[in-house]
């Protein structure tokens, strides 16, 4: 028996049943923009000037499992980072920030990442461990410790042992190679079911760097805790385009805001979230000027960086704990960008929407209730909703739809929810996953 | 294998392991305040001057299940209401607001509630149905239609049939009695597993009404969708104390803010949320002055009303879909009331915290991450956390605790999380439930 809020079909007079995705001005995300070419099997070492390795250092008990990643540039290069804003930020976040803001502002040579222990909620002793972790890597690579970035992911509240670095970093240095990106991507995984890598290229032709092909590549771990607020996300991205640290930071912030920060709400605020980017300039002729913000070359780079970040973010969302589906929430017609963001986040974080996707339930009442309480300004009689391209709500009222067709469309790997608020021109997209029994099993198991 | 953010014990120097609940100034909620006596088996008809009934009218298919409740006052009396702020507000909410704000401002005689169909997202036709629902009840009770309040809960987007009111309201009128409160409480249930009722009395002695005993009683349905944002909550509360509509409204707003609005975030913003209160004055001598806001009599009334609302709110939280535990989140030491509220809501809405409770996992790292991203101002080195009275975090660091003892304490029906931010004197409490496999089953089942 139908026993609670759930829309049922009743005919309403509707003029326009065009799917929202086909309306003029509808914004779509996810594909590669013109001029950006993804690299099959690409990753953090696709860009020239970088090498990487992943090894088992001993943070985890399973000797088959890599738990230490090292990514190193051939030469000191421009570096930028974005970090968690959580009050409970972890020691490696504090230390990486110090290094980036310190004497070697914006210049770095390497990043070392361990998985298994987050070095969070560990006080002064944790800070000292993070600094020692950087020193060990700096000694191995042969650079000042301020040129080494650090990141950790894993258990909160446990102290980070240093011996695994003392043996693991030299082992990683030994393995360091242009092919080592895949091992590094494996080494930073926690509950991820697979490594997340992406790379893409763009041409310098016509943007002042004729004959050059530039690459942006990266790796990410994440989605262990992709539910609202705690995707402990770590990403390392490299490019062989020439950029100053300042320009790199400007581009990274914009790209992260449009990708990793759009994977459910507050994914940017776990204890350990870190996104680091390095630019070697190795694909530019010696002495070439770095890309200045706003130039055609910079814009081409930014579009490629965004495409790589969105690709990694979508991989994170679809690999959420217990996820069976990637869920993309597109909001259009909002009165402001903030309203579009609020509506999309509220839908993407609604457990009722996420369980409806698991249940293949085209229950637009749950979506309506979510946008209605999101704080976004609109009138219910102007709202329209599509589920997987099927119009289910127009003018705030139910549109009859073919339930069998809806069930068929729910078989896709990606579930797209389109919402038009009919209140303006602003738009936003969020990525999330559904909410399955496995999520409860993974997160609700007895700790014993 | 421990594979993600989870605190592990390591000794840290800590001076004060007093449980937070025992610290001076710690605020506890839930118990009856001094002078308030709960009435065993009390409900919406415990106060004098009211009668109620619940019947099967035909909104649901199961003939054994009540689906129409009528609560009527013997005489027109003071009435106040609080309603959802969701943009997608349902037709009965619009109509009840119109009636309360209209010509009969603050005076009402009855409320009629149906379950099964929410009359939400139904446009103009829904508004007309809600008005007709009021007219049918007004004709039966013998009062102007503006003196009838209406509420609905159930399916969104389906039109409300009127025939069940035409037969059901007369049937309810026939059964109307002082004992009918329990049937009415059953009639408004949706996925609730049991009816929710509470009543309490306070004495007029010493507050200007010597010899009088006043009663506040109510019923509620709710927790079908108690997860963030959609507890479609309906409550009807009555009292035989004498109050003006304005004073009643002032008291109701304060009581609802401290109770129903503290059952997870946005529980006040579903499409149909409605809380109505009636004051008959029947327990005061004829001609007695109504309680004026701020007088001792008003304060005694307010304390009793709050106790009844908190009792109903806790019943709603513990009956959340698939809930195995009531979870109470107490935040103290916040820099402001807004910070306390933000921290408590963020913890109460964290799927990771809720699944940890299901799993009996004293995982304070998840609580720390939630308060850290809540926006509340504090320093991690000042934060303290207790789980079921066991200190697990002091000074932002892990405190060793007895894991077996923690597991034993998790067997209780109510799980209490105490958090002190160490940043000020403000406090807040939120009630929620855990997040179990049954929640996914209930909300994720195929709609077919």
Account of the protein in words:
- Chain A is an alpha+beta fold.
- In chain A, helix 2 packs parallel to helix 3.
- In chain A, strands 1, 2, 3, 4, 5, 6, 7, 8 and 9 form a nine-stranded mixed beta sheet that branches. A six-stranded mixed beta sheet of chain A has the order 13-12-11-14-10-15.
- Chain A contains eleven helices and 15 strands.
- In chain A, 65% of the residues are buried.
- The first copy, chain A, has helices at 91-101, 123-141, 163-175, 181-187, 245-257, 296-318, 337-348, 351-358, 364-372, 403-409, 437-444; strands at 37-38, 50-55, 68-83, 107-117, 148-155, 196-203, 213-221, 234-239, 274-279, 326-334, 384-387, 390-394, 397-398, 414-420, 426-433.
- In chain A, a hairpin with a 2-residue loop joins strand 12 and strand 13 (397-398).
- Chains A and B meet through strand 5, helix 8, helix 9, strand 13 and helix 11 of A and strand 5, helix 8, helix 9, strand 13 and helix 11 of B.
Detail the topology: elements first, then pairings:
Two copies of one chain form a homodimer.
Chain A: E1 37-38, E2 50-55, E3 68-83, H1 91-101, E4 107-117, H2 123-141, E5 148-155, H3 163-175, H4 181-187, E6 196-203, E7 213-221, E8 234-239, H5 245-257, E9 274-279, H6 296-318, E10 326-334, H7 337-348, H8 351-358, H9 364-372, E11 384-387, E12 390-394, E13 397-398, H10 403-409, E14 414-420, E15 426-433, H11 437-444
Concise description?
2 copies of one chain form a homodimer. Chain A is α+β, with helices and mostly antiparallel strands and 448 residues long. The first copy, chain A, has helices at 91-101, 123-141, 163-175, 181-187, 245-257, 296-318, 337-348, 351-358, 364-372, 403-409, 437-444; strands at residues 37-38, 50-55, 68-83, 107-117, 148-155, 196-203, 213-221, 234-239, 274-279, 326-334, 384-387, 390-394, 397-398, 414-420, 426-433.
